[in-house]
Design brief:
It is built from 12 helices and no strands. The model has no long low-confidence stretch (mean pLDDT 95).
Length: 296
C-alpha cells in the first residue's frame, strides 16, 4: 500500500480531474457538431490521463534532481508532492513510471493515427513535445505555460473532437480556446509561490522572466480573455447561446484577480489558488454540459 501511495503521490492524483473535463468538453463539442464515438472518447480519456500522469511524474523527477522540491514549501497546489524528497519512491522508479505512462499514451496516439489519419499527426507531435520536454527544456526557455496551455488545454479539447471521426468544426475550436487560456493560467498562478526556488533551480518561467507584477497582469489578461472568448464564439454562432453558462465560473476569479491587481508582490492566498483550479474545471464542465444539451 505504501508503494501504491508513493506512485499516486508522484502522479499527483488530485489533479487528474483536468483530463476528464477537457475530454468532456472536446467530446461534447464533437457531439454538437454531429460526430461522436463513445469508444474513441473513452480511449482519448485514458490516453490524456496517462500523459498527464507522465508530465506530473517526470516533472517531480526533474524537480527532485535539480533540488527544487527539496527547498519549496508545499501547498495543495504548488511546491511538489514531496514524494521523492521524503524517500517514499526513488528517482529511478519514478522516472520509469513516468516513461511507462508516456509510452501507453504514445501507443494510444499511434492507434488513433492509423485509425483517423495523418490529420492527427500535428496534435501527436506537439503533445509528445509537451510531455517529454516540458520539465527539462520548455520551462527553462520561457514557454512552459504555453506548452501546458496547449498540451493540457486547447490541444486536448481539439484532439478529443478530432479523434471522433477525423473532422472538427468551429465549435470544437471555440471550446479549445478558453481551455488554452485556463490551463496556461492554472500553471502560471501556481508558479508564484515557488518563483525564487525555481530560479535557483534553473527554471525560467514567466514570473522569473518578467517579474511578479508583469506576470500577474499576464495572468489577469488570460483570465479575462476566457469568458470573452466564449462570448465572442456565441456572438459569431460558433457556440450555442446556452454555452454562455461557461462564463459563470469566471465569478470565481474575483479573489485571484484582486491579488493580481492589488498586491502581486505578496504570497498568493491559498483560497485564490483554489479558485483558480475551480474556475478551470467549472468552465470546461459547464461548456461540456451546455454543448451536450444543445446537441439534442
Amino acid at each position: 500500500m505504501s508503494n501504491v501511495k508513493a506512485y499516486m503521490g508522484v502522479a499527483r492524483v488530485p489533479f487528474l480531474t483536468l483530463p476528464v473535463v477537457l475530454v468532456a468538453a472536446g467530446a461534447a463539442a464533437a457531439a454538437y457538431e454531429g460526430h461522436f464515438n463513445w469508444f474513441h472518447t473513452l480511449l482519448a480519456l485514458v490516453g490524456l490521463t496517462v500523459l498527464h500522469i507522465a508530465v506530473n511524474v517526470l516533472n517531480e523527477v526533474s524537480d527532485a534532481r535539480s533540488g527544487i522540491d527539496y527547498n519549496t514549501t508545499a501547498t495543495p497546489f504548488s511546491g511538489g508532492s514531496k514524494t521523492i524528497p521524503s524517500g517514499a519512491i526513488s528517482q529511478k522508479s519514478a522516472f520509469i513510471f513516468g516513461l511507462a505512462c508516456a509510452s501507453i499514451g504514445l501507443v494510444i496516439g499511434l492507434w488513433f493515427l492509423f485509425r483517423i489519419g495523418t490529420v492527427l499527426l500535428p496534435v501527436i507531435i506537439l503533445g509528445g513535445i509537451s510531455v517529454l520536454l516540458y520539465s527539462d527544456v520548455l520551462v527553462k526557455v520561457g514557454i512552459g505555460e504555453l506548452a501546458a496551455g496547449l498540451g493540457l488545454g486547447g490541444l486536448a479539447v481539439f484532439g478529443t473532437a478530432l479523434v471522433q471521426d477525423g473532422t472538427v468544426g468551429t465549435a470544437s475550436i471555440a471550446a479549445a480556446i478558453p481551455a488554452t487560456f485556463m490551463t496556461f493560467n492554472l500553471l502560471l498562478l501556481n508558479e508564484f509561490p515557488d518563483d525564487k526556488v525555481d530560479e535557483e533551480g534553473g527554471r525560467r518561467h514567466l514570473v522569473i522572466a518578467f517579474g511578479r507584477p508583469t506576470a500577474a497582469m499576464i495572468y489577469a489578461v488570460a483570465a479575462l480573455l476566457t469568458p470573452i472568448s466564449i462570448l465572442i464564439a456565441v456572438v459569431l454562432n460558433h457556440l450555442p447561446v446556452i454555452a454562455l453558462a461557461g462564463m459563470l465560473p469566471s465569478l470565481l476569479l474575483v479573489q485571484p484577480l484582486k491579488w493580481a491587481f492589488n498586491d502581486p508582490a505578496s504570497e498568493v492566498p491559498i483560497p485564490a489558488l483554489a479558485s483558480n483550479v475551480q474556475w478551470n474545471l467549472g468552465t470546461n464542465l459547464l461548456l461540456a454540459v451546455a454543448l451536450i444539451i444543445a446537441s439534442f
